[in-house]
Amino acid sequence: MKTNAARLLDSLGVRYELRDYEVDPDDLSAETVAGKVGMPAEQVFKTLVARGDRTGVLMAVVPGNAELDLKALARLSGDRKVDTVPLKELQPLTGYVRGGCTAIGGKKDYPVFVDETLELFDTIAVSAGIRGTQLVLAPADYLRVTKGRTGPISRPKA
Q1: How many CA atoms, within 13 angstroms, populate the side-chain half-sphere of residue 126?
Q2: For 40-99, what is each residue's pLDDT tens digit?
Q3: Could you tell me the pTM of the whole model?
Q4: CA-based nearest residue to 84, from 49, 54, 125
Q5: Euclidean distance between CA atoms 120 and 124, whole angstroms
Q6: SS3 14
């Protein structure tokens, strides 16, 4: 199924692949999704929505096997403090639901900050904007489309 994100990539001439997977509403973790689409968790990136005290709403994109480092995100974004937004705000802000959030083709273009490990891979996977479908594309294309800024914003899961 073509999502808004896929249609946007089509309109920009970006090459990508859609990979569908069976959704388990009780386990939306990136590690589980990675296994279902046949990629290592460090190559499947999850998109989190946060709010900085200066920047306002922003998106943080981190590997599936890591967690967001809020202090590092604040440094990269120029904020003093950053917190993830409450789940109830996710859909009104982005148009996307938990497990289907992406920085491509949302309601609004928020600043996007991406963990620097993204550049280690030939291809990465991100949500296509719905649960059950991942976009597989080149990191350079992802950064270009999202205007993403890279930096060290993740840490190993505790």
Answers
A1: 29
A2: 999 999 999 999 999 999 999 999 999 999 999 999 999 999 999 999 999 999 999 999
A3: 0.96
A4: 49
A5: 9
A6: coil
